[in-house]
Amino acid sequence: MVETQNGSNIVENIEDYLRAKDWKYTFEAMEGSESGYSWMKTKDMMIDPLSAVTHPEQFKIVILDYAQGPGAEAFGNKAGWTKVGDYAFSPVYRTLPDLPLHEAIYMMYDPREAPDMESLIGKHQLYCHRDIFEEELPLLANTLSTLKAFLYLGNTYDFVFLAQDQTMAEMKSSEAFLSLPERAREQVCKRRDRMWQQIGPEVGPDLCINEGCEHKRLQLTPRCFIHQMQMQGK
Ligand SMILES: [Zn+2]
What we know:
This protein has 8 helices and 11 strands. The protein has 234 residues and is an alpha+beta fold.
């Protein structure tokens, strides 16, 4: 390792760089809890939390928003679904359905726990907009608690996940969640590898123009591979 001028560590040889040995994973999320519900808001979620938690034996899904339009418009006309105002209510499921939820803001509940959901839902603020603010999360947790919903999930500008405390704990101890750093590293390695295929090797014969660097330059730029990548912020 050498210390660079801006203080970050870079590795000396390309092999270590391609294996991302200089790279550290940090998971950035905003978390909190209120009324028995916990939330997580992050840009770094590469998992489907539904597959990482135990859902109730039977459940319904309420699509609140889909691709910046009302859930009712996108899902309300599907067989077995009903529309309630702007929202779409699914039939009762016992296993996770194969639905395109990647652009949806939705809620899940057990109809035996919350039989009045359809009549109550319109009376509550569900914050089903694209950019959910920090101060709205405790309010939403309170609403979920009142409505007895199982979880709320939004794939918006950020990834927003609110669930009962024990469900959140289960998600955070799941294999999918715990393997995030490893999978993020794989992504970095893939990206660097692709770049190496594109702009490598360091053919020289001149040396890299970065002061003190003993690597030869790439064909297309006056820098070595690592300095070129660093300059591009990759
Ligand atoms: Zn260099």
